[in-house]
Amino acid sequence: MIALRKMAIQYRPTIAEIDLNALRHNVAVVRSLIPDQSQIVGIIKADAYGHGAVMVARTLNSCGIKKMAVATVEEGSTLREQGLRSEIMVLGGLFGLNSSLFREYSLNPVLHNNEDFKAVIAQLKDRDQNLKVHIKFDTGMGRLGFNKSELPEMIKKVRYSNGLQVESVMTHLANADGCNPQQSEQQIRDLDEIFSAFREAGVKVEKHFANSAAISDGFVSVPQWVRPGIMLYGSYPADRFKNKIDLKPVMRFKTRLLDVKSMPQGQGISYGHTFVTKRDSLIGVLPVGYADGYSRHLTNKGFVFLKGMKVPVVGRVCMDLTLIDVTDVVDVKIGDEVELWGENISVDEVAMQAQTISYELLCGVSKRVPRVYLNL
Predict the structure, then answer these.
(1) Burial level of 19, CB count in 10 A (0-12/13-18/19+)?
(2) Burial (Cβ within 10 Å: 0-12, 13-18, ≥19) of residue 370
(3) Which CATH number fits domain 251-374: 3.40.50.11720, 3.40.50.11030, 2.40.37.10, 1.10.10.60?
(4) CB–CB of 254/292 below 8 Å?
(5) Is 271 annotated in the active site?
């Protein structure tokens, strides 16, 4: 398996370079935006947004981050099997059936509803070991979490549940990346009330609400936990932050020209001939397609970076191949390096071209694209 992986890195020209120094830089940016004594919870769900959760977690550990968050038990157990010793918070649902795995892999579940609570309590019966949990409240997202009206009953249950160690209360901001802060401010006030109620009942908990947008917007005014996700990977949670903070892209998605073909004026390109050459043209063939995570929505809309210039995608993006118009590129040849996104064309820009968000593009880079780590 190792030999095959090395072969993939050596011979397949489509790779995702992961610059761990850029990740370290972005951690420093996060720290500059939050009060001293705040704790960072590194969000590494979805294989660290496509960057490779194991290597990202190890790098975050080396930066002093000791708490991580994933979406599923499977993600958490994989990290444990790879030797990660950090605290791991599991953000997704408990589903009852896999509740015992939290104890087996020392994972800390986030409880969203009474079924989650019952499943955890059932696992604690007749056992000596405590289980750390986090309790999520829905203060406006309309998704997962207890309602604020359930707070009195929840506190009563927590106080009388032996072995249950509630480490934090949390919420998720619905519109922190928007331009109107009022909704976020109300959600934060609601969480503050919940936090105070737990503390007044003698349940010592931490609180956290701040995602990348809230951190970037300065919502964290007192020491607490924060949950940066997309900003760790060098993408901005909203365009308005680009002139405010300096993030570095961690992933550089790149390939090489597989072929260069001469096409006459009037020649249709790729499936359906959705692009027709308007002049005699040189068309470059790239060994990357939607099976690799290069979105089909970039058909006739995307750009790549080649030899110092942006070059348009022409014709439909295929499963394994993408075509670009290289007519204006000087001395273009087979083997030239092509950046799909990274330092010269940001994933945010590509996401705009594809009418989606950077999160989706980064998470969508498929397993058949080798991750090559720089600055270990």
Answers:
(1) buried
(2) middle
(3) 2.40.37.10
(4) no
(5) yes
CA dihedral 293, 295, 301, 305 (to 10 degrees): 0
- Strand pairing report for 87-90 and 67-70: parallel
Whole-angstrom distance, CA of residue 226 vs CA of residue 209:
7
- Residue 56 C-alpha from the chain's centroid: 11
211 CB-side CA count, 13 A: 17
The dihedrals phi and psi of 164, each to the nearest 5 degrees, come to -95, 120
pTM exceeding the 0.90 threshold for the entire prediction: yes
Q: Is 301 a catalytic residue?
A: no
Residues of the chain with pLDDT under 70: 1-10, 96-98, 126-128
Q: Which of 6, 204, 271, 333 is catalytic?
A: 271
Scored b (16 or more CB within 10 A) or e, 87-114 reads ebbbbbbbeeebbebbeebebbbbbbbe
Measured in whole angstroms, the distance separating CA 370 from the mean position of its chain's CA atoms is: 18
How many angstroms separate the CA atoms of 223 and 118, rounded?
A: 32
CB atoms within 10 A of CB 271: 11
Q: Candidates 3.20.20.70, 3.20.20.10, 1.20.120.1200, 3.40.50.300; correct CATH number of 20-241?
A: 3.20.20.10
Q: Domain ranges in the chain?
A: 20-241, 251-374
Q: Catalytic: which of 45, 67, 207, 254?
A: 45
d(CA 144, CA 147): 9
Model pLDDT for residues 308-357, shown as the tens digit of each residue: 999 999 999 999 999 999 999 999 999 999 999 999 999 999 999 999 99
Which tokens sit at 99? Answer: 């509740």
